[in-house]
C-alpha cells in the first residue's frame, strides 16, 4: 500500500498553514511511510531546518511503513477538520 497522492496534496491546500509541531509530525510520518527508517546522517549544527526535519523523521524510527501511512492520513484528516481546505 502506498500513500495516495490526493492525501499528500490535501495537506498542502489547507486554509491555514499548520503549526510547527503539526508540520513536523506530517513530515516525519510521510518520510517514514515512503522511505522507512531514517537513512541519512543528521545535518550539521547550523542547518536548523534540516536538523528539525531529520529529528521529526528519526522520532518515527522502527514504525512500519503501513503504520506511518495510517498516522499520516489521520493527521491530515485532523488538520482538514481544524483548518478547512481551500476551494479551487
TrEMBL record:
Family, as annotated: Belongs to the ACBP family.
Keywords: Coiled coil, Lipid-binding
Domain of life: Eukaryota
Protein name (record): Diazepam binding inhibitor, acyl-CoA binding protein
Signal peptide start and end residues: none
GO molecular function: fatty-acyl-CoA binding
PROSITE patterns hit by this protein: ACB_1, ACB_2
Residue intervals of the ACB domain: 1-85
Amino acid at each position: 500500500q502506498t500513500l495516495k497522492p490526493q492525501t499528500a496534496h490535501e495537506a498542502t491546500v489547507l486554509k491555514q498553514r499548520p503549526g510547527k509541531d503539526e508540520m513536523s509530525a506530517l513530515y516525519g510520518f510521510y518520510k517514514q511511510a515512503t522511505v522507512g527508517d531514517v537513512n541519512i546522517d543528521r545535518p550539521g549544527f547550523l542547518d536548523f531546518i534540516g536538523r528539525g526535519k531529520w529529528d521529526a523523521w528519526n522520532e518515527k524510527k522502527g514504525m512500519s511503513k503501513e503504520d506511518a501511512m495510517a498516522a499520516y492520513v489521520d493527521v491530515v484528516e485532523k488538520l482538514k477538520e481544524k483548518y478547512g481546505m481551500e476551494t479551487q
